[in-house]
Amino acid sequence: MPVTEKNILTRLYIVAGFLFLFAIAVLVKLVSIQMVEGEKYRKLAMDRTEKMFTIAPKRGNLYSDDGSLLATSVSRYTIRFDAETVGKRDFEDNVKPLSDALAKLLGNSSSHYQQLLRKAKVNKNRYALIARNLDYSDYVAVKQFPLFNKGPYKGGLIIEQKIVREHPLGKIAERSVGYERVDEDGYYTRVGLEGAFGQYLRGVEGKRLKQKIAKGQWKPIGWDNIVEPKDGYDVVSTIDINIQDIAHHALLGQLEKYNAEHGCVIVMETKTGEVKAISNLGRTSEGKYYERLNYAIGESHEPGSTFKLMSMVVALEDKVIDTNTVIDTEKGTYKVYNRTVRDSKHGGYGKITAAKAFEVSSNTAFAKIINNNYKDNPEKFVNRLMNMNLHRELGLPVNGEGTPVIRYPGDKGWSGVSLAWMSHGYEVSLTPLQTLTFYNAIANDGEMLKPRLIKAVKEWDKTILKFEKEVINPSICSKETARKVQQLLKDVVEKKHGTGHGLYSPNFSMAGKTGTTQKNYVSKDPEVMKYISTFAGYFPADDPKYSCIVVIHEPDKSVGYYGADVSGPVFKSVAQKIYASSPLVDEVDVNDVETKNLEENYQRYFAASNKKYNQVPNVEGMSGMDAVSILENLGIQVEVKGNGKVKKQSIAKGTDLKKVNKIVLVLS
């Protein structure tokens, strides 16, 4: 068809129509972007150039009961340089004096910093690293340096702040102090006191605006935060750092002596339930020990003969026996169905009273007492244990409490031999702290208290929350029964036939029960069988101030494994040192010490507090706490560097005290 003017006009109209429609579509889209989706795209643009970052608040301090720091937050600063914002003349005028100042503060040469700054200027680097991990005083100094004192825009100074957690006691009580961490998905890991009381310590996050500059780097905008972070509250724990140090080193020495797998010590104040020390040490593959896990709270295991106290209380409360009831231990064996209970003494103890059975820790006697009196009604025995709260967790604020096991007739695992084996601490399971809570109740005339780890929450000098003692059970048994078993626990140590008599001193009062538990006892291979050594009790015996438990797992059998030999000396060492450093000191003959090395040094030099010595003692190799106590009692000012044992003392032993005002101790 021939092309005519009419055809051409028609085509032009069609094209013009399409262009008009396209223009309308573009206009509609622009209006939509601006009016409907504008906020979305503005936010996207802002996110690509400017972004709001959260600022971690300063976590509150964690204190011991005397105000000493267990954990604290400190600020650390990173210094960077934005070379683009600095004018050429300002840069040239200040680069040399700035480099000189940085060299004097940070240690590198002035030429090093001149080269670094000039390279950043040439490369137009907006985020050049100058220094990391500066403390607050260094950060303040850097802000006053030439060029940097002009601020973030004219001076190119970029300050990045982070909060780090420090533990002044170092590795001592590390697991008990614990931590609180959060991953990228917001999942918290909470351990120890830090985790338990994070709600108070944590604080409120702040906000800081940053600008994207290059390669995923973000530069803070201006000096100030958009929202200032709010510091967390301070928490005052019940931990006594002196008792904690004593417990730590006493346990460590015994673990090393017996090459044991792991162990723990807990010291609790009898009348309040305050935990004054909690030490947990586990062995590495290299044979070193550190706070690996919280065994004291988290590890539930068969308590062995320390459970005989619970069995004795049940039997006395139900009046199925009295302490003078005679039991025939026969030849040291007692067969129940197809299993035989054996005494540690070959040939047994013959006919003995229930009191003596407790003191010598006869398995056969207790198996007979409980099995013969409760086999027709086993529920009665278990109900009494449950009435004493032994089947319940303590409900601690610290995560990971081990679950107690007290089986009921009909439960999985219950059998015809259960009563006999439960009587002396098998087929039941408790954590060390759960066992100690029961012993503390006996020391407290039957009142069972919840172990307490925190005293108060504070904001500066203002108390926000105060925590008082909490009663779990006002009376786990009658006062009559409590008095009877108190005497038995005392006799375990004082009477010559008692399993704890090796720890006895006429000048040192304590009461307790030994426990030696077999692990893997179903195996007949002696090489497979391991042991748990325990001593639980309290001191002084007649007016208890503290209760304590020591549990040591898998000591070297060739060295020893009985509770009296392995755990008992730790208990005695802890008790003696607490006596020596407290108002109870008059009740203790500090020269009456049977353990060796550090224990002997400590007690010998503690006598110096009574002015028996006029020369500087040798404290090298002793724990820092012990050394400080000794030297300060001599009237010497002490400066301590580091944590742990004394590696070096600045004043030699034998120096006349009259010539010494101050001594510096370097700890390992």
UniProtKB/TrEMBL annotation:
GO terms for cellular component: plasma membrane. One of its GO terms (biological process) is cell division. Its main location: membrane. Residues 610-668 form the PASTA domain. One of its GO terms (molecular function) is carboxypeptidase activity. The chain crosses the membrane at residues 12-33. Gene3D superfamilies: 3.30.10.20, 3.30.450.330, DD-peptidase/beta-lactamase superfamily, Penicillin-binding protein 2a (Domain 2). Keywords: Carboxypeptidase, Cell cycle, Cell division, Hydrolase, Membrane, Protease, Transmembrane, Transmembrane helix. The keyword Nuclease does not apply. It holds the Pfam family Transpeptidase. InterPro entries: Beta-lactam/transpept (IPR050515), Beta-lactam/transpept-like (IPR012338), PASTA_dom (IPR005543), PBP_dimer (IPR005311), PBP_dimer_sf (IPR036138), PCN-bd_Tpept (IPR001460). The keyword Protease applies. It is found in: Membrane. PANTHER family: PEPTIDOGLYCAN D,D-TRANSPEPTIDASE, PEPTIDOGLYCAN D,D-TRANSPEPTIDASE FTSI. This is Cell division protein FtsI (Penicillin-binding protein 3). It comes from Arenibacter palladensis. The lineage of its organism: Bacteria, Pseudomonadati, Bacteroidota, Flavobacteriia, Flavobacteriales.
